[in-house]
Design brief:
The chain is of the alpha+beta class. It is about 25% helix and about 30% strand. The protein contains 6 helices and 21 strands. It has a 5-stranded antiparallel β-sheet, with helices on one face. A 4-stranded mixed β-sheet has the order 1-2-5-3, with helices on one face. It binds uridine-diphosphate-2(N-acetylglucosaminyl) butyric acid (EPU). The site of uridine-diphosphate-2(N-acetylglucosaminyl) butyric acid has 16 residues, from strand 17 and helix 5.
Length: about 290
């Protein structure tokens, strides 16, 4: 089958998704494609549609749990240079969907632009962070957005103003599109102050979260007015292990992969956590991570 004829970007088959997730878990994607530019992206969308191939978009794979059986469709990654551009105009930042937050935030800092410091340390791309409305307790990436340029799955490009987008806690309705790039409003500050704020967020994260072992960040959303990590901790579950999936000793809302964890180990551990928290506090925890079954 040569349905992918005409693609300009990198196309692979049977690509192991564990190589593309921060959890280091996940079986093979039947097809894996990194389009070179928006035209290539549009072509790939029309060809998968014509051939009825399911499609999923991946960023840095930092907030997903991929099945051990992989995905029998095409995984798309906006990793070519044309999707990773970063540009500044006065205090506005324009960043491509595939750009890493860990590149964008220090670049803003070098120019003395403030507002994005809290995103430092979140292991994601601009596109993934927008779709998930990534953030820390009191701050969300949505707060900075001016507009977002997207492509729908029929290949049409549009620009959505912030008011056109529904952002929620770790969610947005951007998931029905492919994010191409976005404009963010920052404010002028001094390099020194921005650097100091970045360091503060980094220290907090290092002190409280398990960053040395593969994980997908926080597994469950925080219930209103509470912390999932605190509840799981109070159930005495730190260190609980199924296979090589283990509840972090440092932050109970992190499940870490201590070797060769499988998705099914993580799912079992998640069920156990939900059961225990429900029994003890009568609270239903909802997953924050996306599960690709
Ligand atoms: N706590 C415990 N035990 C634990 C973990 C936390 O008692 O094992 C307590 C802490 O001592 C603190 C409270 O729970 O009093 C809140 O903990 P923390 O400040 O770590 O924040 P969180 O609510 O657990 C949220 C986000 C994180 C984000 C941090 C930092 C969610 C689900 N989590 O965590 O986001 O990094 O705030 O601001 O919204 C993520 O989304 O993947 C993520 C890690």
């Amino acid at each position: 089958m040569n349905w992918q004829k005409g693609f300009k970007g990198k196309f692979r088959t049977q690509e192991f998704l564990k190589e593309h997730t921060t959890f280091k878990i996940g079986g093979p994607a039947k097809f894996f494609f990194e389009p070179r530019d928006t035209e290539d992206l549009r072509l790939s969308l029309s060809l998968v549609k014509k051939n009825r191939i399911p499609i999923l978009v991946i960023g840095t794979g930092s907030n997903i749990l991929v099945s051990d059986n992989g995905f029998k469709g095409m995984v798309l990654r906006l990793n070519a240079p044309s999707f990773k551009k970063i540009a500044f105009k006065h205090s506005r930042l324009k960043a491509g969907s595939g750009a890493l937050l860990s590149r964008v935030v220090p670049k803003a800092g070098e120019l003395g632009l403030s507002g994005a410091e809290f995103l430092w340390g979140i292991p994601g791309t601009v596109g993934g962070a927008l779709i998930m409305n990534a953030g820390v307790r009191e701050k969300y990436i949505a707060d900075l957005v001016e507009d977002v340029r997207v492509m729908d799955y029929d290949g049409n490009i549009k620009i959505l103003k912030k008011s056109d987008i529904k952002f929620g806690y770790r969610s947005s309705d951007l998931s029905k599109y492919i994010v191409l790039n976005a404009t963010f409003n920052l404010v002028k500050s001094s390099k020194k102050e921005v650097k100091a704020r970045i360091a503060k967020y980094l220290t907090y994260r290092r002190d409280t979260q398990d960053l040395s072992l593969p994980s997908a960040g926080c597994v469950f959303k925080n219930p209103k007015g509470n912390s999932a990590g605190r509840l799981i901790d109070l159930c005495g579950l730190k260190g609980k292990r199924i296979g090589d999936a283990c509840i972090s000793f440092k932050h109970a809302n992190f499940i870490v992969n201590i070797g060769n964890a499988r998705a099914k180990d993580v799912l079992k551990l998640m069920s156990l956590i939900r059961r225990e928290v429900k029994n003890k506090f009568n609270i239903n925890l909802k997953p924050e991570i996306k599960i690709w079954k």
